[in-house]
Each structure stands twice: as structure tokens, then as C-alpha cells.
Amino acid sequence: MTPCYATQLQKRRAHLKVLAQACGLFFMTQASSWAQSALEAFPSKAIKVIVPQPAGGGFDFVARVLADKMAQRVSGGVVVENRTGSGTLVGTDFAAKSAPDGYTLLLGSVSNMVLNAGMYKNLSYDPVKDFEPLGLAVGYSYTLVSRKDAPQKTLAQWIEYAKANPGRVTFASAGSGSGQHVVAAALWHLAGVTLTHVPYRGAQAAYTDLIGSRVDLFFDLSPTARVHVDSGELIALAVSGPQRLATLPNVPTLKETGIANLELESWFGLFAPSKTPAKELQILKAMVLDAMQAPDVKERFERQGGRVLALGAEDSRSVFKRDLARWVPLIRSLSIEPE
After folding, report:
1. pLDDT, position 24
2. How far is CA 287 from CA 72, 204, 306, in A?
3. Rounded to 10 degrees, what is the CA torsion of 312, 315, 317, 319?
4. Residue 332 pLDDT more than 90?
């Protein structure tokens, strides 16, 4: 090999080495860019919010308010899907077993995330292990309403009648194990009376029979109950929260009636399956918090008689676990069971 040829070969090898390094750097840069693009693409399709109650009730209202606001940041939109059955069990279990990819969320409340844990000994889902809280948006008290044609016009009068006629008074719920069922059952137990439970598939069916005088009483979320009270179709007897509602200022709290030392406020928020990747969770938490803190969202909740919470993920987890520790032992001590 001549000196001239050797020099040319060395130069060519050096050139190829530089070219290889350049190509490697290019592909590494592209891979990083593609990975970043994939992250930025989430969410790249519609997000589904599972509501474990029928359309028209409190669950559905909160879900649609949040979905409308979140949809402004999701190219594919945010879709509310009502999956009903067995109180809130069917929809909640479906969400727990959905693919943990960030595209299926659950509208959770005290009912399906706390009360069910006390009501059912063998839940098909674990509220703590199967879900990651994204944020709690709003809290609502329950309002106890009665059919308007009944001679009893106060809670005390209904309790007196129920004591004299065990099992004759009927109370509706949106399903066994629902919040409406538990707060009512706890009240009757503490008041020492026996009433007959009539479970329905959702609040709207219960209202149809209550307004038609085929059932006597119903504890429902205050925003939906208020519509029928304001229209004169039903009579409001008491509210379950710690204070009277501005929308029903003349209606006493349960404590004020002297019947029972009982309070319950149902919060609502969004949850994701627990194995959802951390980066997707981070995006979802920020998206949910922005939606909850939006002035128009707060105004809609307040207009419906809600107490705005707008709690981030960590604060939501604290409230969630606090209520589990408070209500699960109480429900079990009262022997409240699904029927």
C-alpha cells in the first residue's frame, strides 16, 4: 500500500466515523423529539367520564359541568357515559377495571367511594387501591322531601306517625347503597323508627313516584330536590349539611330538628384508575384543577346550591380517607346493609 493510498484510506475512515456519529446524534435527537411529541399529544382522543347513575341527577350534573370545561383543552372532547345498575356499583366497577391509560375517568362521590365500603362486605372494587383522586369539585347536602298531599308537614310529625305505624311509611332512594339510602337509613335508625325502603334506578324515577304520591319520602341531593320544592310539587323537611342552605333558608338542618345528631355532605370529584402512568396523571390533575377553579364553573355549582371545593389531588385524598374513617365504622355499627 502506497503512502498516498494509506492517507486517503485514513481520511475516508475518519469521514465515515464522523458521519456515523452525526447519524447517531440525529436519531437520538429524533427519538427524544418523538417521545416528547407523544407526551404532548396526550390527550389525543376523547376522554370518557363514567357516571354510575342515570342522566338528570346530581352525579350527572357535576360530570357534565366539568366535562364541558375540560373539553376546551381536549381535541377529541370529553364524553359523559352513564353506566347504571346496583346503585353505583356497576359504573364504578367498570371504571376500576378500565384500561389505565388516562382516557377513562370516574365521577366519584361519597356514595360510591365511601358509603359503599361500609355497606358491602365484598366490593368488586377497592376505592383506595383501584383509584387515584384527581380533584374534588363541589359538595352538596341532602334535602329530605315529602309528598305534598300528606297531612304530615314536618320531620317531627313524620317520625311520630312512623312510630305509631311501623313499616307503613315508605322512603325512596336512587338504589340500595346510594347516598340517599344511607343518610335516610341512618336517620331512621337514630330516630328509632322503621320505614319501608323503596329503591329506584336513579333519582328521576323516584321523583316520578313521589310526586305521584306512590311513595312518601325521599332524601336527595339538594340541587335536584330544590327544583321540585320551588315548583310546589314537594315539601322540604330538613337538610343534612352542617348549616341551612341559602337556597332553602327556612328549612332546618337535621340537628336543628332535634331528631338526630346527623350530618352528611356529599362531595363530587374525578378519579382515574390507579395504574394510570404518572405523566398522564400529572396532565389530568392539572386539567381537572383548572376546570374546577374556573369562575364560570364555580358560579354554576354555587347557583345550584353547592359548596365549591376545587381541591387538588393531595387535599382530595385527605378528605377521601377522612370520610372513609368516619363513615365506614358508623354504617357498620348501624347495621345498614344493601337490600
Report:
1. 53
2. 10, 31, 21
3. -130
4. no
Q: What local confidence, expressed as pLDDT, does residue 29 receive?
A: 46
What would the 3-class secondary structure string for 70-100 be?
HHHHCCCCEEEEECCCCCCHHHHHHHHCCCC
Burial of 280 (C-beta count, 10 Å sphere; 0-12/13-18/19+):
middle
CA-based nearest residue to 131, from 154, 175, 97, 177: 97
Residues in the chain: 339
Domain spanning 141-257: CATH 3.20.20.80: no
Residue 173 to residue 53: CA distance in whole angstroms: 12
| CA dihedral sign of residues 260, 111, 300, 304 | negative
Contact criterion met (CB below 8 Å) for 176 and 255: no
CATH architecture of 47-139+266-333: 3-Layer(aba) Sandwich (3.40)
Q: 297-307 pLDDT, tens per residue?
A: 999 999 888 88
* Residue in this structure with the C-alpha cell 352525579, named with its chain if needed: 59
> Which residues in the chain are classed under CATH 3.40.190.150?
47-139+266-333
What are the grid coordinates assigned to 192, written together?
Answer: 328509632
Distance (Å) of CA 316 to CA 80, 130, 321, 325: 22, 15, 9, 14
pLDDT digits (tens, 9 = 90+) for 88-119: 899 999 999 999 999 999 999 998 999 999 98
pTM for this entry = 0.74
- Helices 313-333 and 179-191 pack at an angle, to 10 degrees, of 40
| Crossing angle of the two packed helices 58-70 and 222-230, in degrees rounded to 10 | 110
- Mean predicted lDDT score pLDDT of the chain: 88
